[in-house]
Design a protein that fits this description.
The chain is an alpha+beta fold. Helices cover 61% and strands 14% of the residues. The protein has eight helices and four strands. A four-stranded mixed beta sheet has the order 2-1-3-4. Helix 7 links the parallel strand 1 (104-111) and strand 2. Helix 1 (2-22) crosses helix 6 (87-101) and helix 4 (55-62) packs across helix 5 (69-80). It is elongated. The protein starts with a helix and ends with a helix. 23% of the residues are buried.
Amino acid sequence: MSQSLTLARPYARAAFSLAQDSGSLPAWSDALAFAAQVAADPRVSGLLGNPNLSDADAVTLLSPQATDEAFGRFLALLAENRRLPLLPEIAGLYDTLRFDAERVVKATVTSAIELQASELETIKAALARRFGRAVEIETAVDASLIGGAVIAAGDVVIDGSLKGKLGRLGAALSH
């Protein structure tokens, strides 16, 4: 995994530079996400290693319908260097660079039940104060949390779930 990230990092930086120069950070993010999702599909990943698949065909397969020429050239470079399987890592690293540049923190809120919009806004405001940046929230539901929520934002994880509290209580009592 770390080798994949090491190999993907210069490509992610190059993609970010190209997108930033053209003022199309969100469009590149969407295009990379699409290409990464297609490349990660087990049926496609096996095909990408096939020597009978030309670089041009691989680029066509991985390109969203409405992308700019620079994105196509970027995919062609990846194909030429046999780095298309790195697209999921490249897309993740690119998004990290993009969110840093746009001063946005991406947070995932996993709760035991579906949260109301007002609760999400309260969490979003608290995270914005804590990080001093705009916050983009994704939600997930995991009934095994019993109650509360787990918030993951960058390298910070805040476990306010009942399951987490019970686990910490059990660990404290066993010592």
